[in-house]
Design goal:
The chain is an alpha/beta fold and 772 residues long. It contains 24 helices and 27 strands. The chain starts with a helix and ends with a strand. The chain binds beta-D-glucopyranose. Belongs to the glycosyl hydrolase 3 family.
Length: 772
Amino acid sequence: MSPISRNLTRLTLVSLLVAAPLVPTPALAKFAPNATAGELVDSTAWTRADPKMDRFVANLMAKMTLDEKIGQLTLLTSNWESTGPTMRDSYKEDIRKGRVGAIFNAYTAKYTTELQRLAVEETRLKIPLLFGYDVIHGHRTIFPISLGEAASWDLQAIEKAARISALEASAEGIHWTFAPMVDIARDPRWGRISEGSGEDVYLGSLIAKARVRGYQGSDLSRPDTILATAKHFAAYGAAQAGRDYHTVDISERTLRDVYLPPFKAAVDAGAATFMTSFNEVDGVPASGSRYLLTDVLRHKWGFKGFVVTDYTSINEMVPHGYSADLKQAGEQAINAGVDMDMQGAVYMENLAKSVADGKVDVARIDAAVKAILEMKYRLGLFDDPYRYADEAREKATLYKPEFLEAARDVARRSMVLLKNKDNTLPLAASAKSIAVIGPLGNSKEDMIGSWAAGGDRRTRPVTVLEGLQARAPKGVSVAYTKGAGYNFDDAGKAEGFAEALALAEKSDVIIAAMGEHWNMTGEAASRTSLDLPGNQQALLEELKKVGKPIVLVLMSGRPNSIGWAEENVDAILHAWYPGTQGGHAIADVLFGDYNPSGKLPVTFPRNVGQVPIHYDMKNTGRPIELGAPGAKYVSRYLNTPNSPLYPFGYGLSYTSFTYSPVTLSKASIRPGEPLTATVTVTNSGKRDGEEVVQLYVRDLVGSVTRPVKELKGFQKVMLRKGEKRTLRFTLTDADLAFTRQDMSWGSEPGKYKLWIGPSSAEGSETEFELTQ
Ligand code: BGC
């Protein structure tokens, strides 16, 4: 086993111990047909040997022509929708001719049946199609965007959201989701930060596993489980300047320590497929990287599924300047380890010639075909190609009331209370008139965010206004006006201000529902500013002059720079894009029916100039603390503090928690020996509530410099008011491993600091030593 995989296996075992959430989520438990909570789902079960399958696939492959084999390596979009520039209108003809093995962007029992029939009834070998789709945060019932779900730090809730997504998607003929997106993202300019789990390696790895378990369950042959895809392999989140599809240039050490571990976690959880990324890694486009796709993924990590490209990313190796033409690009991709070509038709058009030229070995094509046919077999498609397409099941499954209830529960768990001056929230009983003001206050389309799969944007989502109106006690009025626009060209337009100010004047409290249009995050949605777009900021400043309490309900898919709001409004709730039931979930939190428990999975900068900023930065030789306040020759800005607006792991509650000093089972440990850190957390406030108790360490001296803090464990606990709980975290040296100076993976002896606290910026500190 490689040093990388050895350590991650051990890390995984320990992480299961330290991170298991203690709060059961009863509202969700009953929706898991696998009847399991968390770790009991063995999503790796499909990786076991199956001699019957081996014989079946070998027999089938013996009958296949080279063209039929290449057909299995081709994935095309239907004409329903597209996420990229190239469309092939002839996809139905391609299916009939056996030139395509998989289709994406097609769902419903009816449509997938129609397409499947072309493959099963009209091709020579009758090999069923595989249907893929971007089911990212729900299929029809939409959950909060992935970054929002991550803010719940609730692995059970996240797993259940994926499970429900699989139940709905599979009922509509879908076999395969292009999720989870496990890219670490540390640059909020990059719109795709919304699709992942944020900046942290440890949290991101656990969430990657939870999502794989949710989609795949323990048994791929059940028609209600679907294949997961770990994407985008690799380092897509490190796009320079946060511009989507841009160059990535990071060190091998950063690649191994930061960007790869969530992918390794996905392999460990049994992710059936991997998707390559658009970017280059050290000068080689990911779809042509033998290092990533074969050396690391297959050889070091032992991945047994298949690798698909991202949308036309083989073709893009030509403009990258890595391939002279499409034929060469196809050769580089297949030889690097890409099994399936998404939408580019490069394999379809060129691979047979490359075999004839001797540039590609048939054995390599066979390996790719085998991996894909095995997946079709494991899904049971050779027994019944239509088993996922059942109109009765579809009707009975979509939008089940319990799914909607789960979406509401996950949404409120994902919300982060950023400010709450003088307990502005929950809303006081004395607030008899509520003004909802802002472009996101009554906007259905925005509630479900980007990548909302089959989600209905027009009628189903519950808006903030609707949620508050439904919940407001008798005698409390809730009125709405938009007030301001959020599009870039709304800047400077103040037509709606007068009406907004008039409404504010006659109301007891203002709910400012502001943020970004849903289309401003996700793919191809990078920004050079993190400010509230349009004229929202100007409206907020005008509203402040009215003198009524202001609650900012922020909806967006990235950290925004809301420094003015932090100083000037009374309360701030980050609601992300909360999904189909978002308005109800927001009302639950604002009225205090749910006590917020989310914590930021990503650092919020004060302004875009601080980017990249993340909690696990290095210290530098001239840390700011070395100088007197305002000293010049230290690592600082002249005009902005180094600290963020809100740190990673931060989030308030309507109650308060106090932490005892941390005690350790030993002052020093040897390799392999466990260290137990103990802390007592007390709910010292007036309400029941949940707290995410976080454990961080710092390796003080290393053979290479080490981050100032690294998350190594957390537990989300429910404490009744006045209740105390003693929590234990167990670590071994495996949790302290990193890529050492000689590029080997392991820990190093020396002194470490350890904190347990409510965020990455606070906590009770202690020290221990790791000896030889
Ligand atoms: C995105 C992928 C997505 C694919 C298929 C691409 O543009 O980068 O994340 O899975 O399209 O829709």
